[in-house]
Amino acid sequence: MAEEPQQEAAAAAEVVVTEAAPAEEEKKPEVPPVAEAEPAAEAEKKTDEAAVTADDAGAGSFKEESNLVEDLPDPEKKALDEFKQLIAAALAAGEFNLPPPPPPPKTKEEPKAEETKTEEPKAKEPAKEEPKTEEPAKAEEAVEEPKTEVAAEVPAEEAKTEAPAEETKAEAVAEEAKPDPEEKTVVVAEEESATKTVEAIQETVVPAAATSEEAATPEAEAETQAAAPEPVLIWGVPLVGDDERTDTVLLKFLRAREFKVKEAMAMLKSAVLWRKRFGITSLLDADLGLPELENVVFYRGVDREGHPVCYNVYGEFQDKDLYEKAFGDEEKRERFLKWRIQLLECGILSKLDFAPSGICSMVQVTDLKNSPPMLGKHRAVTRQAVALLQDNYPEFIAKKVFINVPWWYLAANKMMSPFLTQRTKSKFVFASPAKSAETLFRYIAPEQVPVQFGGLLKEDDPEFTTSDAVTELTIKPSSKETVEIPVTENSTIVWELRVLGWEVSYGAEFTPDAEGGYTVIVQKTRKVPANEEPIMKGSFKVGEPGKLVLTINNPASKKKKLLYRSKVKSTSECGRGLLGPTVT
């Protein structure tokens, strides 16, 4: 029983290190074995404490830097300018282009075979002409003549001693190179005739044509210079030019490499070439046939600073059929990887703004509830995906929140924390199951948090949207909380509320403002168990001014989190008739 959590903790620690910083990946320490598991009861008690400590340490510690050039310190401005110069030089040299594919091997071998066949007879021809004696003599004279000129410069004694050896060498050279004079004479004759014809043509050319050619050469040079550097875009942003978004993208790579320009240049070049090899452009419109995964990774809402939020719900893979469809074999795992990259690319293009004052990063929420073991079929593709994301998508995560974290994952994170950079640790937040919703609310407003994670955000809600703010209240142990909502005459009030964990008593009534008016019980007080529907909704039409009073009684010894919101509609919007409370 204790070995399985230990293995998962070791694997999780390995993933945490991989998610940390790609620059340190080669120095990744060997994951030590996790200490022997504690009893389940003690582990559960320590989970909340560890989660709260980790969350408090990470909360608010990371703040995104400005992308405005005027706000950068001088060393960072200098690094940005140097980075741009390196990029311009690399573009001119074509370093962002993929090398041409090598030709097929068959086309290489066939010409070689023909060349050898044609060259062999030529090599054998001199051997057939060896009996001839006149030509070698002529060759000897031709060879000896230059030798006498060289010998004139050498002392007489040395010339006498070297003459016999030189003559024998000359004879051997003459015999081996016997056909060369014939070939040379033919080539020289052809060259001389060619030069004569060229000179004759040049003499007949009108001087005006020369002037027109001289006038045309600057235009041709201008066209070649303009067409030489191909524009390179990444996430729709050019790497060079006057586009204000360019600085934002380049600063991502610089910050990922701590403003080390050469390392940032290597990372950018590698990312551009990888995008071309991976086929990002064609991948955007590809139909990968995985609609079942829409509940595994999805975008929903924004955080309190406007960052889009991406949720990763690995508990969905408890469905064995879905798990096999995603990770059953190598081909399926490769398709899953493409699907994950496609989803990220679409999110970047549709939800981020690379303007200097825009939102250019996102928040990731990873739900570890019922997640599959880290040692399953998905481990290899998960690590591959993490490596690709960190190497090719720098500084796209503003905050990474882990919710419903089991105790062994917290232990693994604590073990590997010394190996993470402070910048990386400042982005990570861990929350136990009991603290998950409240932790999310620190960074994401409840109206932006989906219902399944403790918030009030629902798809296709006819009454409320994310623009309708939610009020948060804390109900103390063994206490009662009342919420009063004023209502005007001839209107309908609509409300919804949620108590995390429920186990409270809830009721609603309408009290008119006029003296002697009768109180109307809208919702009879009843106890709401923990397994009740997560949200209570109700509506009530009134004909006189008054207030709606919601009463929540918490008999438990622990505090509760109450979420509610309401809106008042005119009678024309809702029609006539009394609408009783409804529960959804």
TrEMBL record:
Pfam families: CRAL_TRIO, CRAL_TRIO_N, GOLD_PATL1_C. Its main location: cytoplasm. Residues 467-568 form the GOLD domain. One of its GO terms (cellular component) is membrane. One of its GO terms (biological process) is cell division. InterPro entries: CRAL-TRIO_dom (IPR001251), CRAL-TRIO_dom_sf (IPR036865), CRAL/TRIO_N_dom (IPR011074), CRAL/TRIO_N_dom_sf (IPR036273), GOLD_dom (IPR009038), GOLD_dom_sf (IPR036598), PATL (IPR044834), PATL1-6_C_GOLD (IPR056794). GO terms for molecular function: lipid binding. Keywords: Cell cycle, Cell division, Cytoplasm, Lipid-binding, Membrane, Transport. It is found in: Cytoplasm; Membrane. Residues 7-21 have a biased composition (Low complexity). It comes from the Eukaryota. Residues 1-77, 91-186 are annotated as: Disordered. Residues 286-461 form the CRAL-TRIO domain. Residues 106-150, 157-185 have a biased composition (Basic and acidic residues). Belongs to the patellin family. This is Patellin-5. It comes from Panicum virgatum (Blackwell switchgrass).
